[in-house]
Amino acid sequence: MIIYDSSQLGNESDVDTNVLDGSIDMCNTGSGELGKRYPAFNVFQAPYLFASYEHFEKFIGSEVEKDLFQKANQNLGTTVCGTQTMGARYVITTGIKATTPAEFAGAKIRCPDMPSIISTVNGLGATATPMAATEQYLAMQQGVVDGAEHTLSGFSAWNIQELCKELMLTNHAREVTFTLVSQSCLDKLTQENQQILLDAINNAAAWANEQTNKEEEGFMQRYQEENGIELVEVDDDAFRAALAPVSQKLSADDPELYTEIQKLEP
User: Fold this and answer.
1) Residue 151 main-chain phi, psi, to 5 deg
2) Which H/E stretch holds residue 174?
3) pLDDT tens digit string along 59-117?
4) Distance from C-alpha of 207 to C-alpha of 211, rounded to nearest angstrom
5) Nearest to 265 by CA among 23, 45, 51, 92
6) What are the pLDDT digits (tens) for 111-160?
7) 95: Cα within 13 Å, side-chain hemisphere
8) CA 97 to each of CA 60, 169, 253: distance values in angstroms, whole numbers, following the listed order
9) 8-state DSSP, 35
10) Contact between 91 and 147 (Cβ < 8 Å)
11) How far is residue 251 from each of residues 32, 64, 101, 116, 128, measured CA to CA in Å?
C-alpha cells in the first residue's frame, strides 16, 4: 500500500471524485464532503448529534450505521466504512469566559470557512469569523479575533493555546470522517481478501478513535499545566437550546437518521 498525504493527490473533493471513478483506491473523507455526494452524511454536521464519545461509540457497528452504509454504497457505487472521529469541538479564547450563549455576544471567533461551522458558531452566540488556519495565530495576537472554534488537536496544530486563557467545554459537535473504498479496488481482490481489507480499515479506525479520545484528556491537562488555561464548564442546556434551530437545519437531509442516532445515546 502506498500512502499519499498532505493533499499530494489533490484537494478533498478531487480525491473523493477519483475514488468514486476508481483512479484512487481509497481515501479518508469528511462528512461535509461526502454529504455533497450522498446528502444523508450532512447530518453529521449537526450540533449535538453525539452527546459524548461513548454515544459516538454506540453508533459504530450499530444497525443505524449499517443501514446508512448499505444505502450509501448502493447510491455511490463504492464502499463507505471506517467511521472515525477527530474529536469533539470546543471554543478557546484569549480572555472571554462564556458559560451561556449570551456571554458570547460580541466575541469574534475564528472558524473554518464552512457554512455548517459558521452557522454553528453564530448559534453559540458568538460572531463567526472565518479565516484560514494559517492566519489565526497572528489574528489572535493582534486582537482581530477573540478565540477559535475547533477540536483540541486543531488548536494544538497551530499552537494557539499559547495565546489563550479559557477553554469553554461546549462539546457542541464532533468531527466525523469515513473511509471511502473504490469498487475497482475491491474487484481486484477475492471476497475473502475484500473482507480482510474492510475489517482492517474498521479495526484501524477503532484504534484511532481510542487514541483520539485519550489524547483529548492529555491536551486538556497540558493546557492547564503548561498554558494556565481555565477549563470552563458551560450551561449545556442553554447551548443546546440556542443551537436547536441549527441542528434542525443541518439534519434536514435525513431527519430520521438524526433521530435514530440520538436514540443511541447511552
Assistant:
1) -80, 165
2) strand 166-181
3) 999 999 999 999 999 999 999 999 999 999 999 999 999 999 999 999 999 999 989 99
4) 6
5) 51
6) 999 899 999 999 999 999 999 999 999 999 999 999 999 999 999 999 99
7) 7
8) 35, 11, 35
9) H
10) yes
11) 12, 15, 21, 11, 20
Phi, psi (degrees; rounded to nearest 5) at 114:
-130, 125
Q: Please enumerate in sequence order all residues whose Cβ is within 8 A of that of 97, keeping only pairs 6 or more positions apart, or say none.
A: 103, 166, 168, 230, 232
Q: Rounded to two decimals, what is the model's pTM?
A: 0.91
- What CA–CA distance (Å, rounded) separates 178 from 181? 10
| Calpha distance 148→126 (Å, rounded) | 10
The sign one gets for the Cα dihedral 177, 183, 188, 191 is positive
Nearest partner of 21 among 4, 3, 9, 6, judged by Cα: 9
Instruction: Give the 3-state secondary structure of residue 32.
Output: helix
Task: Supply 150's cell numbers.
Answer: 475547533
The CA–CA distances, whole Å, from 38 to 57, 154, 196, 206 equal 22, 26, 26, 24
Dihedral, 244, 246, 247, 253 alpha carbons, nearest 10: 140
